[in-house]
Amino acid sequence: MPGWDALLYLKFEDERTRPARDLLAQVPLPEATHIYDLGCGPGNSTELIAARFPRAEIVGIDSSAEMLAKARHSLPSLSFHEADLSTWMPDRPTDLLFANAVFQWVPGHLAVLRRLIEALPPGGVLAVQMPDNLDEPSHVAMRVTAMDMPFAAKLEAAVASRDPLPSPGDYYDALQPLSRHIDLWHTVYEHALDNAASIVEWVMGTGLRPFLAPLDAAEQKSFLDAYTSKIAEAYPTRIDGRVLLRFPRFFLVAVRA
Fold first, then answer.
1. What is the dihedral of CA 15, 69, 127, 96, to 10 degrees?
2. CA distance linking residue 231 with residue 137, whole number of Å
3. Neighbour count for residue 113 (Cβ, 10 Å)
């Protein structure tokens, strides 16, 4: 896939940051010394962590050079490093591993999360949030549109680019033996956006990326026209002319035994 577009991602900064605020609110640590923000993106979640733990050493980790450049510009006093989370491990005793909306992109992430919590000292916290929206109209329409296109063969990898999340029970069984306490929950957000085009713009910064990447400019336009039409049908206009984007997210907070 092409590099992440930090400016497009941040166009919906408040809506994208709200789950990070909700996750951080459930982290049961009064103080912290060493923290990693995994999949830190442009630094919006890192900024929240720094405000909560002003005396902590905080390091942001991401695989996107574009996102890290934006994070370094926004938060020049903090450290940011490029790494692949499928293999990355902390290099020091860590109080908090915070991961907002990143592990849905990591294949086999259940085993990765188990390895990460094993690396924590007793009392260390693993806090994770992931979109759980593959069955929402926004994402069903991506796959349906892809299969309807004359260039559908180019999009086979995109259709298979994200697997559904494991069940909450799978996370519990994997992490509970290593945890003194574990919380699991879902939250469904209803984001009021201007119109169907705003929903398309939202997902262009995330879920649509693997669908658009293999296409040339003309194919991208054809795909987006067909996709936008489906989105307009799936998300009716509300009384004020806006639309509601339903967005389920899965959260877990585990404290190392």
1. -140
2. 7
3. 22
39 in a structural domain = yes
**CATH number reported for the structural domain that contains residue 219 in this entry:** 3.40.50.150
Residues 151-209 have pLDDT tens digits of: 999 999 999 888 999 999 999 999 999 999 999 999 999 999 999 999 999 998 888 98
Which strand (E) or helix (H) includes residue 175? helix 168-175
Q: How many domains does the chain have?
A: 1
Does 73 reside within a domain?
Answer: yes
Domain interval for residue 86: 6-256
Residue-wise pLDDT for 41-78, tens only, equals: 999 999 999 999 999 999 999 999 988 999 999 999 99
The Cα 237–Cα 196 span in angstroms is 8
Domain assignment present for 139: yes
Task: Please state the length of the chain.
Answer: 257
Does 1 reside within a domain? no
pLDDT of amino acid 6: 46
Which segments of the chain are extended strands (E)?
34-38, 57-62, 79-82, 96-100, 125-131, 179-193, 243-256
Q: What's the rounded Cα separation, in Å, for the pair 83 and 179?
A: 26
Among residues 97, 100, 115, the alpha carbon closest in space to that of 255 is found at 97
